[in-house]
Amino acid sequence: MSRIVVAGGSGLIGQALCQALSKAGLEVVVLSRRPNDVPGLKAVGWDGVSSGPWQSALDGADAVVNLAGHSMANGRWTKTVKKALFDSRILSTRALVAGLSAAKRAPRSFINASAIGYYGPRDDEPLSEDAAPGRGFLAELCLNWEKEARVAEAMDIPTVCLRTGVVLSADGGALGKMLPIFRLGLGGPLGHGRQWMSWIAREDLVRLIVHCIEKRLHGPINGTAPHPVTNRQFTRSLGRALHRPAFLPAPAFALRLAFGQMAEEALLSGQRVLPAKALESGFKYRYPNIDIALASILG
After folding, report:
1. Is residue 258 domain-resident?
2. Which of 67, 124, 172, 245 could bridge to 8 as Cys pair (CB 3.0-4.6 Å)?
3. CA angle, residues 288, 4, 167, in degrees to nearest 5
4. Please, are residues 164 and 142 in contact by the beta-carbon 8 Å criterion?
């Protein structure tokens, strides 16, 4: 039986991925700071930084998937929060790659999370995987994150840096936080609403990770749907799906006041990201456009 090791298996994406892998009959081992909080799966304790007995789980694994990282959307990016965002990604990736190096039988595939923040604010420019990195805190974070992951390539391990967009799920994440406001009819665009929003349904992202493992893909891969939308288009689609008005804008000055740099880089600007490599590799989206995705997610 193939064994898949997942770091960050208790998060929004990790939970869904582990369930899908387990349902497919694969052995799943979760690396977690709180292994007792991972019911129904084999979990091994790991602090996200240190080496230790957990490394034995990597030996001979079919794939290792790293989704570990402090949430980027929990308030202002203070110095303390920035350090937590950086350390939880860079140090965990570095420790995992060290574990891969120590394995007697190296895993056949390494999938490491990244984000479309790699491209920085880019207005209307279409961005495939060969686009240059942008500027800003998120771009710098992703650039360093991917640099750590790519060390595994020198071990001849096919390595994917999965640049994920906004993951849509009713269970949490950005959409989960929006739903209470939009259900009251109080939702609307952020600022002018013209900024691009590159999104993906959680189910499609899970399927894309499995696809990367099965196809032994490597290199950067954009984890987004093929049809990005502007923030204004997204809010209109969400309003239609909920049968609620969605025209009350959140003023840019208020967002900047409340969230500081996070508002500037993550809310009021965006990226028009296209999943060129996923499509070239034959991946088929179940939810290629926003109306289909939201209708399914919201039932």
Report:
1. no
2. 67
3. 30
4. no
Type and span of the H or E element at 254: helix 252-259
**CA distance linking residue 271 with residue 289, whole number of Å:** 17
Q: Give the predicted TM-score (pTM) of the model.
A: 0.96
233 part of a folded domain: no
Q: Which of 126, 130, 124, 173 is nearest to 16 (CA)?
A: 173
CATH number of the domain at 100, please: 3.40.50.720
Give 251-280 pLDDT, tens digit per residue: 998 989 888 998 999 899 999 999 999 999
pLDDT, tens digit (0-9, with 9 covering 90-100), for 98-145: 999 999 999 999 999 999 999 999 989 999 999 999 999 999 999 999
- What is the end-to-end Cα distance of the chain in Å, rounded? 35
Six-digit token string for 5: 């090791």
| Closest to 165 (Cα-Cα) out of 264, 72, 296 | 72
- CA-to-CA distance for 204 and 210, rounded, in angstroms? 10
d(CA 178, CA 298): 12
Six-digit token string for 257:
């006041």
Question: What pairs with residue 115 in β-bridges?
Answer: 164
Has residue 121 been placed in a domain? yes
Task: Decide: residue 208, CB within 10 A, 0-12 exposed, 13-18 middle, 19+ buried.
Answer: buried
Expressed as residue numbers, the domain containing 71 is: 3-168+198-227+273-287
Residue 249, judged by CB atoms within 10 A of its CB (0-12, 13-18, 19+), counts as middle
Is 152 within the bounds of a domain?
yes
| Kind and range of the H or E run holding 63 | strand 63-66
184: tokens are 């009251």
Q: What is the 3-state secondary structure (H, E, C) of 8-62?
A: CCCCHHHHHHHHHHHHCCCEEEEEECCHHHCCCCEEEECCCCCCCHHHHHHCCCC
298, HSE (Cβ side, Cα atoms, 13 Å): 21
Look-up of token digits 């350390």: 87
